[in-house]
What does this fold into?
Amino acid sequence: MNWFSDYLCPIMRSLLTYILLFAVLLPSVSPWGIIAHYQLNKEYIARVLCENRNRPELHCDGKCYLARRLQAQQDKQDKETTERVHNMPLMQLFCESGFYFNFSGPTRFFTLQRFVYLVSHYDSPICVLLRPPRRHA
It folds into this structure.
């Protein structure tokens, strides 16, 4: 074995794993990133970016900015999804010609067989289990 396969391959494999995991989970956690950005910069957003900063009686505190950013993110995801659906190639799932079936008459695949079991006496195991205890005199 050499140094590359012993040391770098496991590191590169784990790094690739984390990059792919991050890429897969990023769209689902992006709204949380927007909310975290809002919470960390709440004062700045309320002072500078809020639409209602001149009307403090509304107690908006930048929630309009947060709603606008979340709506923009949702619209972007919807647009990407719509584009992916429209650009998806069509797949033909069946063949229109060449396969014909003839359902002309009844066909029996199974024959009926009758079995009769004669049991003279049957003791249920529950009778043995639920018997009251004996008293020793």
